[in-house]
Amino acid sequence: MECKQIFSLSSTSHRLTQRRMWGVENSGDNFVRDISGKQTDIHIDNPAEKLNYIGDISKPNDQWYGYPTCFTVWKPSLFPDKKFAVGDQFVVKPNATFDDAACEKKSTPPRLSFQAHSAPIDGVFDKAFSNMYVTFHGSWNRSPATGFKVIQIPFKNGTKGYEPTAAANSDTGYTDIWFNANTGSCGGSQCFRPTGIVADSSDRLYVASDAGEGEIFILGKE
After folding, report:
1. In 27-81, which ranges are continuous DSSP H helix?
2. Can you say how many angstroms the Cα of residue 56 is from the centroid of all Cα atoms in its chain?
3. Fewer CB within 10 Å, N side or C side of the chain?
């Protein structure tokens, strides 16, 4: 199981004085939902990867984001025992001590969910903070493969500062902007695998890839 968080920090909002932090998070692999000994393989499209809102960095944050007990639903239809929605929290093996309801009460769900096994690594905002760009390193044990791309998340400036335009339970809150031609067959060093990402003053994106001996790609608007 892997769980990594790499944080991207926005600058001061036009309306607010706070600085706000966001983090992308890899989730777990090979999950089997276990209800009283009855097991269902849910790993192909669950659990979701996550975009977490960490908050105003000038204030203490005592929120718990679930790991290693609570995870996030990406494809609700794979759960035969309960009706979920995208972004809901679940326990792999609910028990009398800790179940799905406990996750809903105690853990902070993601602000946006991503396709399972995408492996988000890094993120950066454009100058206007109207978009966040995230690198998906790509899956290692999903067939067909997924990830191996850079995505764009539209943001808006609302009463609480910048946030994604999509609702938290959306599975369409981001757009692929740079990806391999045949992602489903990717694996190892066969495709580029985006890792770090930075932007320059002209909003060009510099994307690192650790496929093969390593590469840097420059993405810009025409």
Report:
1. none
2. 20
3. C
Phi first, then psi, for residue 57 (nearest 5°) are -70, -10
38-72 pLDDT, tens digit per residue, is 999 999 999 999 999 999 888 999 999 999 999 99
pTM above 0.85, yes or no: yes
Q: Which amino acid is at 12?
A: T
Q: Which structural domain, as residue segments, surrounds residue 186?
A: 5-219
Backbone phi and psi for residue 74, each to the nearest 5 degrees, phi listed first: -110, -50
Residue type, 55: G
pLDDT of residue 180: 93
pLDDT value for 87? 98
- Which residue shows structure tokens 């608007």? 221
**Residue 23's beta-bridge partner residues?**
7, 52
| Inter-residue contact 203 to 131 (CB < 8 Å) | no
pLDDT for res 190:
80
Residue 189 CA, distance from chain mean position: 22
